[in-house]
What we know:
By secondary structure, this protein is mainly α. 61% of the residues lie in helices and 11% in strands.
Amino acid sequence: MKKLIFAVVTFLTTFTAIQAQDNVETNRLSAVLQSYYSIKDALVAGNNKTASESAAEFMKNLDGISYKTISEGSVNNLLKDAGTIANAKNIDKQRAAFSNFSTNMASVAKEQKLTDQPVYLQYCPMKKASWLSSEKSIKNPYYGNSMLTCGKVTETIQ
């Protein structure tokens, strides 16, 4: 009887620890996506300073993610792209880097559940580039106010 109780307690302790670890990883993934959205929103607004700060925050949020969750190659690609955005002082250079960054982020979003909410993959035919958004309405990060609504939703990632 003591062995059975010990086994049950051990199982429950292990299960609870795994559950807690999963919750931490889920929160980190959500923070990564939210900081991506912050970069996108800053580019939509044409605010290069906020884009740089948001990219630095993205890198910080991505730093704690396990390679079991997001592959090391994907993490390194995202860090490189975010680093380019964080270090660029020119909005045009940030927008250029955002294209590759968004391609890499879309791959991750398709492989991992980053949020309970839908993620919209949107496409700008003028730039021939995509980005992720939390809403269906188009707010183009590549051209800002000059072509704010240029684009379309190409996929909804659940």
